[in-house]
Design a protein that fits this description.
With 194 residues, the chain is an alpha/beta fold. The protein is 56% helix and 15% strand. It has a 5-stranded parallel β-sheet with strand order 2-5-1-6-7, with helices on both faces. Strands 3-4 form a two-stranded antiparallel sheet.
């Protein structure tokens, strides 16, 4: 079974594209969602996160995302240390999930697919793009984040240009009807190649 990576900068619309693939019957693993689940449910991951960040990493027995975000977005070394805990756990979880799927291919959606080296386990990669101003507007609406916060998050990701150079497929996500048509075309190509 082929693994197709799906990535793009924050606010590009990766989730929208992932949902379109799901509508076409493609199993989709969303790494960010599963990482949060593992950070909450896996005793091994929890103990490593607590060892790194202290007891404030969890509040009321739940992941304290606000605290962790504040810790890592100002400190690249701590972000790398957190990723070194979470990424291997996510890859193991993905491998178990993939074994249960019945499909020609599965999608592995990850915001930092290239940055984390996750593209090395993919047979092809789809990059979702959108104009920077559109992305900023989307993030402001979705997260009620300030421009400063958004730019700090964007700084932790590779540029769209760099991602596009490594992509097998590119979907510019501006108009939803156009985006869905592009998804259907890519889906057909992937089925033919499977």
């Amino acid at each position: 079974m082929k693994v197709i990576g799906l990535t793009g900068g924050i606010g590009s619309g990766k989730t929208t594209v992932a949902n379109f693939f799901m509508e076409l019957g493609v199993p989709v693993y969303i790494a960010d969602v599963e990482a949060k689940r593992l950070m909450s449910e896996s005793e091994e991951v929890r103990s490593k996160v607590t060892a790194l960040f202290g007891i404030k990493a969890y509040a009321n027995n739940k992941l304290n995302r606000k605290f962790l975000s504040a810790q890592v977005f100002e400190d690249k070394e701590r972000l790398e240390a957190l990723n070194a805990i979470v990424h291997p756990a996510v890859r193991e979880d993905f491998a178990r999930w993939k074994e249960k799927q019945q499909a020609a291919y599965v999608l592995y959606e990850a915001a930092i697919l290239f940055e984390s080296g996750g593209h090395s386990m993919c047979d092809a990669v789809i990059v979702v793009t959108a104009d920077r101003n559109i992305r900023i507007t989307r993030i402001k609406q979705r997260d009620q984040a300030s421009l400063e916060e958004i730019e700090a998050r964007m700084a932790n990701q590779w540029s769209e240009e760099r991602k596009v150079l490594m992509a097998d497929f590119v979907i510019e996500n501006i108009d939803l009807k156009e985006t869905f048509l592009k998804v259907k075309k890519i889906h057909q190509k992937l089925l033919q190649a499977a």
